[in-house]
Amino acid sequence: MFQGTLFVLHTGIAWGHLPRELGFSSGMTCWRRLAEWIEAGVWPRLHEALLAELRSANALHFSRAAVDGSRIRALKGAQRRDEALSTGAGRAVGAT
Fold it and tell me: How buried is residue 15: exposed, middle or buried, by Cβ count under 10 Å (0-12/13-18/19+)?
């Protein structure tokens, strides 16, 4: 199921099109297991374990790393604690 899940995530195919002839479980079974692993917090722990392994092997090369808004929220400025979230209402008053 792990290999089937990685195959779907890597290729982007639909879960229902997971090729069983490659020895994977059904796509629905892999999808359900993925949901269970997400709920159990498996992916962050796996990520940390892989990073630790790469660090110990001195195999991380940050010269090729990039950060974008798909993983880290890009904010234009931090909101102060005393500011309420604005809905935009009232901005038109006095606007030029």
Answer: middle
Report how far residue 23's alpha carbon sits from residue 36's, in angstroms, rounded to the nearest whole number: 21
For residue 79, CA distances in Å to 18, 27, 50, 72, 76 come to 44, 43, 34, 16, 9
How much is the pTM? 0.56
Name the token pair of 39.
């709920």
% of residues, the chain, pLDDT over 90: 53
Q: Which residue has the tokens 């102060």?
A: 80
CB atoms within 10 A of CB 61: 8
**Dihedrals φ, ψ of 60, to 5°?**
-90, 125
Give dist(CA 73, CA 59) in Å, integer.
27
